[in-house]
Specification:
By secondary structure, this protein is α+β, with helices and mostly antiparallel strands. The chain has one domain: GAF domain (Beta-Lactamase, 2-Layer Sandwich), CATH 3.30.450.40. Strands 3-2-1-6-5-4 form a six-stranded antiparallel beta sheet. A hairpin with a 2-residue loop joins β1 and β2. The chain starts with a helix and ends with a helix.
Length: 156
Amino acid sequence: MDDRTSRERVTIDLLNKSMGEPLATLLDKTTAALHENFPHYTGVYVYLLEGETLVLGPYRGRPTEHTRIPIGAGICGRAARVKETVVVGDVNADAAYIACSLQTRSEIVVPIMRDARVLGEIDIDSDVPAAFTARDRKFLEEVARLLAARFAGDTE
């Protein structure tokens, strides 16, 4: 097993073991595990959908002034609107990008969904251009699926 596979497994195991904990604790542990285990994940943010607005929850990395993002605004809002993962290899080339940090070069936003309903999303920034691969996407979509199974009941 390579190092990356090991770090992915540790993160998924932590989520599975933490599913019975309060939602805020689970989300905080998730952001910590992602930030600590994947060095190219410079900032890890969880947003929860409240009405038509994404509201910042637990995060690791640089603070952001973007604590409330309307559906459709920026890359986070786009992912919630289209209900699918959005990967941006060069944030400076995306007109919709809302800058959190001048150092950020790429971003991946993965909706946390139950059926066709967006509950929240995982937003990850990287200081590395084109940092997110198909492997990152698949892994983060699995993390989002696990989170959706846990917190769907808490948000209904």
